[in-house]
Amino acid sequence: MSDDKPSPSSETREDSRFVPGDGFVAKWTNYFRLYFDRMTYEEALKWKKARDVRSEAADCARCEKHKEYLLNYSPIIQFMRQNINKLGGDLHSGNIRCRRCDTRQGGGFHERYGIILCANELGKQREVEDTMAHEMIHAYDHLRFQVDLHGNLRHAACTEIRASALSGECRWLREFWDKSQYKFTQHFQECIRRRATISVAMRPECKDDIQAAKVVNEVWDSCFSDTRPFDEVYR
What we know:
Largest sheet: 3 strands, mixed
Strand order of the largest sheet: 1-3-2
Structural class: mainly alpha
Strand content: 5-15%
């Protein structure tokens, strides 16, 4: 019937909605709804996007500051730049860019355009460092091994395994504080598998997370043991 009311499951309750605006009431209403898990997933995404748009300039400025420091003083970033330069590549301040991203990822690499750092997802300097190192591993693999990043899932899985293993993003302390992963045994390999599978599953040529996990398993042994250009896992 035309006057039927929507069922409770088909509508968003008023007290679980994101409240637009930058004012005091809107800010704290959204904060408490998120904190007490009263906001739906879809409404939380709206809140996050609005927050990211509002703080874009500050996020990018902070990211740029961290980036410039790391390019000059980070041992792993300088080491990766040197090895990329030896292969004919050149990553520098001009083609490593801080931007607001709409996707939930820390960054990305494209062989034509360089590296994007998602400023709205990277708050701390160590997060920027890990992401830069991760994407530099992709750049190195592209130059050294002619990795097909856009059409070959086995290539994609291999470089994701290597990037997670060598960048430092799977070290125990980061997983403990940022991801609430408390395992002491097999933590490192489990973290790499998890991150690589998620990254492969996000690629348009991948059907689902089941296929992603299968491809990661297929290339695991050779790619996990390959630490080039490092002599061993650095961090």
